[in-house]
Specification:
This protein is of the alpha/beta class and 383 residues long. Helices cover 31% and strands 19% of the residues. The protein contains 13 helices and 12 strands. It starts with a strand and ends with a strand. InterPro entries: Thiolase (IPR002155), Thiolase-like (IPR016039), Thiolase_C_2 (IPR055140).
Length: 383
């Protein structure tokens, strides 16, 4: 059961990563109504360069515990990238049920600005730190000039268009729906409503992806506390869960328009879901998940978006707070953004973007280098 959560996001945070993390931890503890001494479990993650620009943090969980002053009976590092936050909550609940911990704190985030100033992304971090490896095959594979993952997802979008006849306008409609949702979200960085023409008129970054289809990396943290009983929040439980991990790199994949979500979402019923929070590093990422979780047939995710209302007021609410496309992507991981939005919805706290009567929310995270991981999570109140 999630007993507390909090977040803080900045385009650029001037203090240290640890200072920002500590502020968010304090806020989450306040919501949960507990103190640091009550925490006996910790799960966390980070990506190279996102903790004050360093290539590596030695004994990372120890560094966090030393700074926060947290002891623990249960510690775990979750290295899934984007969906790590979702996996953390599931593992925390299992640890509590097993008697390994009482209150587990889950920390995801960092500073994306330190990486951004180098003119790269985390998935091309080897260009800034030559001793960092991206794949076991870097000598053969990492020889091209790219801005991965932007260039990779651009290839996926172009492949999708070629195979299934999807259009730029269909992808752009996803950005339009999400911006509408963000327009009422006080936490959103981008709130001005847009049209399909605005998306397609924004600069092309990697053909066919335009600027308004691509997430902006920011500084920030999301912290979630899992315990036995919530004092100040609704009783939100895990109603369904799945994860899938693919090992083949894109060049070896039979078809690049599929994601592991096609496996992680198996067995989770969608017919009673009130809102969908889908990983949105790019518009095409959302489109792929719409197809792979079963909302639409493969190849028709863009059509579903263009022909339906995906706003928080619509018939298929998707990314009801605006998603990472409008809130930013803290430290190149969006899982915290979509998980927090789900919790806001289920606690009736989504001021300005609340889905009426939301009782069940489906969340899907995609992460790792080039869609290696997927975690599907269904949250709601057990009956």
């Amino acid at each position: 059961m999630i007993t507390g959560f909090s977040s803080k996001i900045f385009k650029k945070y001037e203090g240290s990563t640890f200072e920002l993390m500590a502020d968010v931890v304090d806020d989450a503890l306040h919501v949960a109504g507990i103190e640091k001494k009550d925490i006996d479990g910790l799960l966390a993650t980070y990506l190279t360069g996102t903790f004050d620009g360093k290539a590596h943090n030695h004994f990372f969980l120890d560094e966090i515990r030393q700074y926060l002053g947290i002891r623990g009976n249960f510690l775990e590092f979750v290295d899934f990238g984007g969906p790590s936050a979702l996996a953390m909550v599931y593992r925390a609940e299992k640890a509590i049920k097993a008697g390994d911990a009482t209150n587990v704190i889950c920390i995801v985030g960092g500073k994306g600005s330190d990486v951004r100033t180098k003119g790269i992304t985390v998935d091309s971090i080897d260009k800034a730190f030559p001793d960092v490896a991206i794949t076991p095959f870097d000598n053969y594979f990492r020889v091209y000039d790219d801005l991965n993952p932007v260039t990779d997802y651009a290839l996926v979008a172009e492949r999708h268009k070629h195979l299934y006849g999807s259009t730029d306008e269909e992808r752009a409609s996803i950005a339009v729906h999400q911006r509408y949702n963000a327009s009422g979200n006080e936490k959103a960085l981008y709130k001005e409503k847009i049209k399909v023409e605005d998306v397609l008129g924004s600069p092309a970054v990697a053909d066919p992806l335009h600027l308004l289809e691509i997430v902006y990396p920011v500084d920030g943290f999301h912290v979630f506390i899992v315990g036995k009983r919530a004092k100040n929040l609704n009783d939100v439980d895990i109603l369904g869960y799945g994860e899938a991990h693919w090992s083949d790199i894109p060049a070896e994949r039979e078809e690049i328009t599929f994601t592991p979500a096609i496996e992680s979402s198996k067995g989770i019923e969608l017919n009673k879901v009130d809102a969908f929070e889908l990983y949105d590093s790019f518009t095409v990422t959302v489109m792929l998940q719409i197809e792979d979780i079963g909302l639409a047939e493969k190849g028709k995710g863009g059509k579903l978006s263009a022909e339906n209302d995906l706003t928080y007021k619509g018939n298929i609410p998707v990314n009801t707070g605006g998603g990472s496309l409008n809130l930013g992507q803290p430290a190149y991981m969006s899982g915290g953004v979509i998980l927090e939005e789900a919790l806001l919805q289920l606690n009736g706290m989504a001021k300005g973007h609340q889905v009426e009567g939301a009782k069940t929310v489906f969340i899907n995270g995609i992460g790792g280098w080039n869609r290696s991981h997927s975690v599907s999570l269904l949250l709601g109140e057990k009956k």
